[in-house]
Amino acid sequence: MHDDEAPGTPETLTPSDAWRRLREGNRRFVEGSTEHPNQDAPRRHSLVAQQNPFAVIFGCSDSRLAAEIIFDVGLGDVFVVRTAGHVIDDAVLGSLEYSVALLNVPLIIVLGHDSCGAVTAAMESFETGTMPPGFIRDLVERITPSVITAHRNGIHDINSTVVEHVQETTRRIVDASKLISTAVDDGHTAVIGVTYRLAEGQAEMVSGFGAL
Fold first, then answer.
1. 190 - beta bridge partners?
2. Which of 83, 114, 164, 208 could cysteine-pair with 192, CB 3.0–4.6 Å?
């Protein structure tokens, strides 16, 4: 929401508009000039009966990857879905489809980051042949196809493998969801992959489906 808009006023943004707004917020975060928009009481009250997020961010659960902070946005701005290693399951796909079909969100971002623990665990399991216990194994099994693809492409370091996993995740979302792929084909929504550098605080697009 811009300063001259009433709280809760619906906006119609293109995928390009949405990505530009997030890039601008991330630039402020990197520069240390964050504005912390839409975080006051009037904004909170305006959202009681409705929400109108302009993007959905499907990111890793890592505590260093708080989406609203690194993109300098506030309440009601982004619809956030998080799992360790941004692994996809039915609940994730349902949440993403909800954001597109019912909230008309024009942009889906898959957000990964360097030094990802879940991707590291998948790489170690692939290299040693030893799987972790419990439901951590499920995470590793869902990330392993990206690790295999990375190895096939001659990629063996963690941060380059994260990029590969982000790219694979964006592709799987479009392949798995007919609703989302149709929205992409129609130009209503774009799905992009973004990696975040922990030290610099910078988010960079590494893949994409749809017009930006």
1. 107
2. 208
Give the pLDDT confidence of 89-104 residue by residue, as tens digits: 999 999 999 999 999 9
Residue 6: band (very low, low, confident or very high) from pLDDT cuts 50, 70, 90: very low
**Order of strands, edge to edge, in the sheet holding 203-209?**
78-83, 55-60, 107-113, 190-196, 203-209
Flag whether 75 is in a domain.
yes
Q: How many domains does the chain divide into?
A: 1
Which pair of tokens denotes residue 56? 């959905």
Flag whether 1 is in a domain: no
Q: Write the DSSP assignment of 159-178 as a string of letters.
A: HHHHHHHHHHHHHHHHHH-H
Number of Cβ atoms within 10 Å of the Cβ of 161: 25
Which sign does the torsion angle of CA 97, 17, 80, 167 carry? Answer: positive
Residue 10 pLDDT = 44
Q: What is the CATH number of the domain that holds 141?
A: 3.40.1050.10
Whether the per-residue pLDDT at 11 is higher than 80: the answer is no
